[in-house]
């Protein structure tokens, strides 16, 4: 009959597997080198998998935390953007009013300059001899028609 392989509980300093044979009860041999290597590798793999799961869990928690922070930051940015949009609307309204006022003032300035030029022309005409009056009136009339 073939020998049966059994593993004992691991001791703190390592493991002590043994093989029990069917021959004599006191004929216990240690597990073969390959079997010990296989068992060590199995334990090492389990420990590595445990560490990997722990790393994955920590990474997942970090990602959840980062997502929460980013959601808060996004909410703050949305509120800030809303305020900036309102401010932009007010600035544009003020700008439109100022442009309209500047346009009205520009027209008024052009009217005043025209009036000043006419007064200046009248004063020169009044100071000129009578034969020059006719020339100025003719020039003035032609400028009005143009």
TrEMBL record:
Record Gene3D superfamilies:
1.20.5.170
The superkingdom of the source organism is Eukaryota
SUPFAM superfamilies, sorted: Leucine zipper domain (SSF57959)
Q: Which GO terms describe its cellular component?
A: nucleus
Q: Where in the cell is it found?
A: Nucleus
This entry's Gene Ontology molecular function terms read: DNA-binding transcription factor activity; transcription cis-regulatory region binding
Q: Where is this region: Disordered?
A: 15-58
InterPro entries tied to this protein: bZIP, bZIP_sf
**Protein known as:** BZIP domain-containing protein
Provide the taxonomic classification. Eukaryota, Viridiplantae, Streptophyta, Embryophyta, Tracheophyta
């Amino acid at each position: 009959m073939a020998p049966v392989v059994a593993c004992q509980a691991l001791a703190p300093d390592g493991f002590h597997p043994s093989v029990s044979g069917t021959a004599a009860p006191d004929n216990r041999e240690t597990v073969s080198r390959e079997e010990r290597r296989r068992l060590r590798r199995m334990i090492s793999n389990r420990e590595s998998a445990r560490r990997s799961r722990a790393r994955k869990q920590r990474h997942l928690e970090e990602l959840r935390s980062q997502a929460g922070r980013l959601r808060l930051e996004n909410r703050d940015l949305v509120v800030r953007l809303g305020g900036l949009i309102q401010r932009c609307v007010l600035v544009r309204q003020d700008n439109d009013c100022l442009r309209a006022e500047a346009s009205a003032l520009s027209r008024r300035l052009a009217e005043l300059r025209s009036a000043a030029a006419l007064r200046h022309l009248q004063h020169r005409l009044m100071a000129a001899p009578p034969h020059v009056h006719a020339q100025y009136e003719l020039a003035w009339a032609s400028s009005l028609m143009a």
